[in-house]
Specification:
heterodimer; A: 179 residues; alpha+beta; four-stranded antiparallel sheet; 9 strands; 35% helix; B: 321 residues; mainly alpha; Ferritin; two-stranded antiparallel ribbon
Amino acid sequence: MDTQWPRFIVFLQERANAPHQYVGSVHAPDADMALMNARDVFVRRPACLSLWVVPASAVLMKTAEELARETITYNREDDGAKEPYFVFYKLLEKGTLIHSGEVDAGSPAVALAAAYATDDGQTAKAIWVFPAKAARCSTSDDIQPMFAPARAKTHFRDQAEFHITTTMQQIKRGQDDDE
Amino acid sequence: MYGATVEPIEDAQTDDNRLREFEARIARGEKIEPGDWMPDEYRRQLIRMISQHAHSEIVGMLPEGTFITRAPTLRRKLILLAKVQDEGGHGQYLYHAAETLGATREDMLDALLSGRAKYSSIFNYPALSWADMGAIGWLVDGAAILNQTMLAKCSYGPYARAMKRICAEENFHKRQGQDIVITLATGTPEQKVMMQDAINRWWWPTLMMFGPHDTDSPNSAVLIRWGIKTKTNDELRQMFINQTVPELLALGLTIPDPDLRYDEESGNWRIGPINWDEFWQVVKGNGPCNQERMDARRRAHEDGRWVREALAAYAEKQSGT
Ligand SMILES: [Fe+2]
Ligand SMILES: [Fe+2]
């Protein structure tokens, strides 16, 4: 039986002007706690300006292969009240899904159809859409308490703090001198 | 009612055709994403590997975790704390990657706590002195990096991306280990003895981490065919030996292998026979610390119960149900 807490997909923005990227997921009883868990799991070291968590059940996910196998039928009469949807594309083979913007739509399928119809949508390896209201987003007030601590920790958490190659070279050179 | 419907097109594709197209995609270097067609065996092998890998990260916190309170300086303590915390994060990245294939985190956690799950045999050996923190960082994390660098190129997108994030952090783990080894190996006579003792205990278990010889590793062929692995156990093991032996020797340390010799012709360091009986004993649960690790893991889970209950109660109160 599945008794686990809901799964939230995590999106992370590394720096200003960079898009939010899909990095993984966490489980939590609610969105606030999901945001805290996401911070602990994904912002131990990397720079982070903003985190979004979205219930996995709210995200409509399709790969290019699935879209090629499926037809999207658009029925204008069935379209509900419009609301903004976030659109994510995977454009690079080795990359992850990247936030590309919003579309207004009356349902997830309509949002997907709109996202698929664009130039990026036609070349994307995967497309995700979810209603903006489903996301719990950190704010600029969260930057200091949530993300600043990870930045200050580089002095003992950064590989660049350890000069192993030069030290080993010195040790080896010292031995050559002795011979 | 939705304003649009997404429906499958009837298609007469046979599984043979799909398999051919799947293998062609892998040959072209494309990444398979959740939702894409994949053979059941590909999914099964990935769930097996990724969940075992996740469990190893989680259990991997335990041998070093016991030394956080015994670190010799505040700086070393902060470094070790950060490293152990990283391993916990790696476990979470990997559980997520396995979930994208249909596994649930609850099942995986249950498999670990009930003792059904396998994890890397290396973590069933005890950490006895501070020098072990150096040996683990250099040897164990060093060996893991070779494996993980290969997996960062694997054909399954979510696993490859998790590995990329992990590798960036593992380099810090290896270097902090090397830093400890160098400090002790060039320190007082007592420190040198301590360091040598740790190398003597961790060397062979580290070589076993790469898994059985290629001739005894039945999954290898299919994993390589589907781009999950690109190197065999023996290839990775040899890479590790070649890069590690000269460095340890340069520090005046010795390798606990009387048969170790340099083979001029191939440029490889050749090792003596690995004690596979010991390896299988540890895998079957009879290693020096298997029971202790499982007990510690279960205790941590039980000790955290009140936190989970409090969070659930708070969430319920907030939602007003
Ligand atoms: Fe790790
Ligand atoms: Fe590590």
